[in-house]
Amino acid sequence: MFLAENAKLVPVMRPIDKTGAAFTTEWISMKNYKHADFIINLGAMTSTSNQAVTLKVADDASGTHSTVITSASSAADLTLDEYYKTSSGDTLAKTSVSSSTFNLTKSSDNKYVIVHVDAEKMGTFQSTSVTYNADYVAISVATPGTHACLAAVDCLLTGPRFASDSNPTAIT
């Protein structure tokens, strides 16, 4: 089994110092994949950095019609109930989320966090009284204010609908 034939790694945010800037990753199309794992790699953070992470869905690659996924959203099947965080080295610990968002804090410094998405749970959402298919997903991270936060985000897509030597693009 080769990674290139059975998965697709998409760099959705290149490594940056996001001091003072919130960001949303590129929109990832889930039309050709069963699962997406957003891997948030964190470098140095100042002691007061505190940034909320949220999951968003949209009907197209530009996010024209989108919504933040919350426990109370109309896309009730897809929630941000948990994430995985390294405690040291490469050991992951599942962490529950009570409000469909979680914070990156100083304790996340020099670690990585994984947010898993199942395509079959994405369903539909409402925007301005219209129902849309939630075919695209992205991660948003709030601003750390004037505090330093070095970060990068990759998305590992698995379960391609049609495995091949070169899996289809997920950012269109």
Q: Biggest sheet: strands, sense, closure?
A: 6 strands, antiparallel
CATH classification, class level = Mainly Beta
Radius of gyration: 16 Å
What's the CATH topology label? Jelly Rolls
* Domain tally: 1
Oligomer: single chain
The proportion of strand residues reads over 45%
At CATH level 2, the architecture is Sandwich
Dominant shape: globular
**Which spans have pLDDT < 50 for at least 5 consecutive residues?**
72-76
In N-to-C order, the SSE pattern is: HEEEEEEEEEEEEEE
Number of strands: 14
DSSP helix fraction: under 10%
The main sheet orders its strands as 1-14-4-10-7-8
> In whole angstroms, how far apart are the ends?
27 Å
Mean pLDDT score? 79
Classification by helices and strands: mainly beta
List keywords for this structure.
about 170 residues, mainly beta, Jelly Rolls, six-stranded antiparallel sheet
Describe the structure.
- This protein has one helix at residues 3-6; strands at residues 7-17, 23-24, 28-29, 33-45, 50-58, 66-68, 82-88, 91-96, 102-105, 112-118, 124-127, 130-133, 136-141, 149-160.
- With 172 residues, it is mostly beta strands.
- Helix content is 2%, strand content 52%.
- It has a single domain (3-160), classed as Jelly Rolls (Sandwich), CATH 2.60.120.
- A 6-stranded antiparallel sheet has the order 1-14-4-10-7-8. Strands 2, 3, 5, 6, 9 and 13 form a 6-stranded antiparallel sheet that branches. The protein has a two-stranded antiparallel sheet with strand order 11-12.
